[in-house]
Design a protein that fits this description.
mainly alpha
Length: 147
């Protein structure tokens, strides 16, 4: 197989898909945990349980999956030579937006861990929709390549 990755291309593509699924699963679940955490009393057993769940989800699943998604995705983009295509630029913009959402979740996680969260459960219900909308846009751009 031609290109940057050669015969490794299908394996890197499979790795990318698995990493994206894992990243998105975490990005969809973490703000839902924040919704419930925001409604719990700081310092309560329930709040402490949420802290453990959020930390493990972020450190063991979301962050590693995000890193692998980016690395494998950039390798695939190089292999396919899509750097100058308009759909790819739009996809990259959506990925940067996803990265901003990821960073905002890390910020919220730190606030919850320090018992200094000032955001409401309603705010996190709204934020729970952001990764979903971005994911839809990213998949449509990657699969349909509309422009």
């Amino acid at each position: 197989m031609e290109g940057f990755l050669g015969a490794a291309y299908p394996w890197i593509k499979a790795l990318h898909i698995l990493a994206v699924i894992s990243w998105m699963a975490g990005m969809l679940y973490l703000p839902r945990l924040f919704v419930y955490h925001a409604d719990s009393q700081a310092g309560s057993d329930q709040s402490e349980t949420f802290k453990v769940m959020e930390r493990r989800l972020l450190r063991a699943i979301i962050n590693p999956a995000m890193a692998v998604s980016w690395l494998a995705g950039l390798a695939l983009a190089t292999h396919l030579g899509v750097w100058t295509e308009a759909w790819f630029h739009a996809k990259l913009a959506m990925l940067v937006a996803m990265q901003v959402a990821h960073a905002s979740f890390v910020h919220a996680w730190r606030a919850f861990a320090a018992d200094t969260n000032s955001r409401s459960a309603r705010y996190f219900r709204f934020m729970n929709e952001v990764p979903t909308l971005l994911m839809i846009a990213i998949v449509v751009l990657a699969v349909a390549k509309p422009f």
